[in-house]
Amino acid sequence: MIKNTDKPFERMFAVLDYVASSLRAVSTTEISEELKLPLNTTHRIVANLAAQGFLRRVEDVRKIVVGPALIKLMGKTAVSAFRIARRTFILEELVGEIGEQCEIGVVHNNTVIYVDSVRVAEPQALQFDPTVRAPLHCTSTGKVYLSRLPADERGRYVRAMPLNRFTEHTITDADAFLAHLEHARKTGWAKTNEEFVLGLIGCAVPILSPDNVLLACLCVSVPNARVSFEELDKFRDPLERAAKRLADDILSEK
Hints:
- The protein is elongated, with a radius of gyration of 25 Å.
- The protein has helices at residues 8-21, 28-35, 39-51, 68-98, 140-147, 151-160, 174-187, 236-251; strands at residues 55-58, 63-66, 101-108, 111-118, 134-135, 190-193, 200-208, 214-223.
- It is an alpha+beta fold.
- Strand 6 (190-193) and strand 7 form a beta hairpin.
- It starts with 7 loop residues before the first helix and ends with a helix.
């Protein structure tokens, strides 16, 4: 239980925690004494939370119980936790099958963000940190996103974006990069060859809705000391199977 809180939001959560943890209706005085809060402060917090529906007064006994808004939030939290666990389970199964680190990547503000990741059970010397935001032009996820743009829009976008060099393998020529994207568009997936981090290669497949809308990308990152660039092709089928399952899972959240 949360106790001895000083900040207003901590006091609010402490009150919610105490009421939600109680197996009976509780009075404002009980809350005040248990949490060591001034009684007038407790009255104010309870009144605010009750006004928002997070707490509810039991009129006949003048005590407090959880309100409908808190019950609804608790339900959403439980469902969200289950969905995250289910998505992680799909990734864990994929990692178990291919033996390499996998991530789910999305594009936000012209940057690739990895929103979920599962690593191999025994980390190798070289692994990609999924908390790092990565540029579009040197990641397989970014390439998938760009390849799916209409040709004219893709051309304008690529010629306007900075193709900064991160390694000696980064594609920094707009024409060469557009040709690379056209190949990704035709094949339906994308690969990278030490273009962002030396020694690290990878590939990505799209996670698509039934009407072919791009939801995210499923990608794998692997040291090229263990897997050659040409051998990345062997990951495509398991990635696409997992992407279909992830698409169903993501759409179930809508």
